[in-house]
Amino acid sequence: EKGGYDYFMLKEIDEQPRAVAETLLGRLNDAGQIVLDEVRLTDQDLRDVDKIFIVACGTAYHAGLVTKYAIEHWTRIPCEVELASEFRYRDPVLDRSTLVVAISQSGETMDTLMALRHAKEQKARVLAVCNTNGSTIPRESDAVLYTHGGPEIAVASTKAFLTQLTACYLVGLHLAQVRGVMFADEVAAVVERLQRTPDQLTALLAEMGPVRQLANDLRDASTVLFIGRHVGYPVALEGALKLKELAYMHAEGFAAGELKHGSIALIDQGTPVVCVVPSPVGRGVLHDKVVSNIQEVRARGARTIVIAEEGDEAVAAYADHLIRVPRTPTLLAPLMTTVPLQVLACGIAAARGNDVDQPRNLAKSVTVE
Ligand code: M6R
User: Fold this and answer.
1) Residues noted as catalytic
2) Which residue puts its alpha carbon closest to atom 4 of ligand 1?
3) Model-level pTM?
């Protein structure tokens, strides 16, 4: 069943180009509009939305954090992302014009389900982004967009994350279009870039040899830090989660700019710091800020593992290890930058002799609160 792979996780990492392609398939109709799967909401309902909450757990929550950047940029609707397990306990302000987006691979995560039910009690509209047909979360939602990732067996989420991002980008584009904030040709331009990503992922996956080697080198590290800005920040969080979950190592993700407010004190001689660098194209300021953050950590002894776009020459001087990813628009970059972090965590876990597909203390689907 593992198709020649040592672990389901490796197989699922390699399935990502196809999973993303299938999630995109048939989403743009002849009129250039994004098509969702089950929409029991009218376009007018979507035009009336004045606030969005995304609720999810773990990796799906990180997909939500990336989505916030895209949704706010494209639709100009305020969007908050909340851990599903915290949502209802803080008594959020919700009403008919609130859209709650519940992201869940399994569709059965109890925390996310309870957040969704709370939202519905408050009359909010709920849209599910889910990988499992007919599961509870999409059944109880007003609209659904399925990710077509196929079954994910490994406990650590990989292809689910990339397909969640893909689907959530489509949700953002759909909302922007229905509300008239983006024209069909603008939406089509983003979709075209999305459609290029499966081939880019295939190319990226073919270059993962050095990452596997690095994983072997890092097997005895006592802590690994991850830094990023903008959409690179949730990618840093995701990289750290994968490492904790699989390698049972201390790992933490930080917003690169926040490091100097305390956590930089953690950095010692040789501390590995994985740095997710934004594209230098378009948003040069963001890129330059991250480069200076890399210099800061390096000056304090960090061993820097830099994930940067092809053609970004400025970073090379500050990288102890440089991992290249294909060029994408800034908002879509997590579809690329996450992949080496998955491979790294998987490699470190394997090098430590851990059970990669079934890490200790974890279950694939968490059906208790
Ligand atoms: O099925 P869900 O997407 O609702 O699951 C949410 C989390 O439990 C899940 O993403 C978890 O964090 C993964 N094991 C992370 O790799």
Assistant:
1) 364
2) 104
3) 0.97
